[in-house]
Each structure stands twice: as C-alpha cells, then as structure tokens.
Amino acid sequence: MLLPGHSTQDFPETNARVVEAGRNSWPSQISLQYRSGGSWYHTCGGTLIRQNWVMTAAHCVDSSLTFHVVVGDHNLSQNDGTEQYVSVQKIVAHPYWNSNNVATGYDIALLRLAQSFTLNSYVQLGVLPQEGTILANNSPCYITGWGRTKTNGQLAQTLQQAYLPSVDYATCSSSSYWGSTVKNTMVCAGGDGICSGCQGDSGGPLHCLVNGRYSVHGVTSFVSSQGCNVSRKPTVFTRVSAYISWINNVIASN
After folding, report:
1. In this protein, which residues make up the domain named Peptidase S1 (predicted)?
2. Residues involved in catalysis
3. 2, 60, 160, 164: least CB-packed within 10 angstroms?
4. With respect to CATH, is domain 139-241 assigned 1.25.40.180?
C-alpha cells in the first residue's frame, strides 16, 4: 500500500510507534503541502538536497495539485518562528515510475523550487550516500515525518521519529517477508510489528548512521495493505544510493 498524504488537520495520539523528534534534530526534513480552499495541508515528507531542490517520492506528486515546501518546521499547527515557505516550480518524477505498480520501484521525484531556502541551524541539506552503497543488515536508522501515529490514526502535528533498523535485501525479499515485491533498488527497515512508517510519512527520509554520521538512505515509499506496523512487513523505501547519478543529472540539466 502506498503511503499517500492525508488532507485533514488532526491532533496527535501517543503511540509506541513513534516519539516526538527533538526540535531541529533533522533539519533537512521538509513538509510538502498542497493548497485546497485557501489553506495548505501536509501531504508528504521530503529531504532538502540543494537549497532549491527537494527529494521526495514520485507517488506524492502524481496529482496535479499546487504544492509548496516548508522547511524549518516542527509543529505544523503553529508558527514556530523558524519556518520558510517556497513554492514548487517544477516536478521531475523518475521516467520509469508507474503509479499503477509501485513494486517496480522508481518511486522518487525531485522538486525544483521557485527560489532557494536560506540555510541556518534549522534548515540544512541532507547528506546523500555514495552511489551503490548498500546498508549492512540491522544498521541503525530513523524514519521521520508527520505521518499517522498508528494505522488509521491521525496525522501528527509535531515531527515524529521512529527507530527502524535496516533489513537486508536477502531477508526482505524472502517469502516470509515481502517476497518478490521488494527489488534491490529498495531499502527495507523495521518490521517488528511495533514501529513503522505510515500515511503522511511518504517521501520523507530514512536517516541511517554510517561511518559516524547520518545520511539519507531511503525515500519512504510503501507499507503493507494489512496496516502500517505489520510484523515481517518492514517499511519499504526507495534506495537513494541507486539513484545518485539520476539525481545529479536532473539537477544539472534543470
């Protein structure tokens, strides 16, 4: 099941799945928002990778809505005083993305912004892995986002994080996990039946600790249709290290 956005502004529930992130602890996290009836609503996460480029999931931008990007945010329902807002000027989804078949992969898109964000202690560029990097099994990773705090629950108002150790491809593609649905261009993480991504987290980052620093190894893509936190159905991410050349080429040519 894809992790689409959610258009209602609800109040958070406490749940073992996630904890509130420390303010300003993930400064490359963005909120992708769409306009409806004069208001803006969070639909997906994303990562600031250049001052005027955001990386998110292709399925987040399938619809022809008007989008803007918010950086430096923590609580979506109030003004933190650190936010910056910029409209999306151009959307470049991966050419092989097929919205009718998420299992083929390629669930990645780049958003060129109308102007550059100002970097400061609340707004930083995400660090991307080297091309081809494969995480070791059980690498320490965190998913972050304003997604639902439980299956069929409500969107979080403050940025949440959940510890999701990576699951290697051999395990994740085995028959008792995801089987052939998962490709080697994806990253799996979690699957303990407690912590997971959920609707509204889509497009956001999977931050993994490699060689002493966090880098963005995944773009949140899908979970099981049985629910967000199903045992042996880890959250599935687009593997960023499989798309470094594509990312660089898109930015260079736009």
Report:
1. 2-252
2. 59, 107, 202
3. 2
4. no
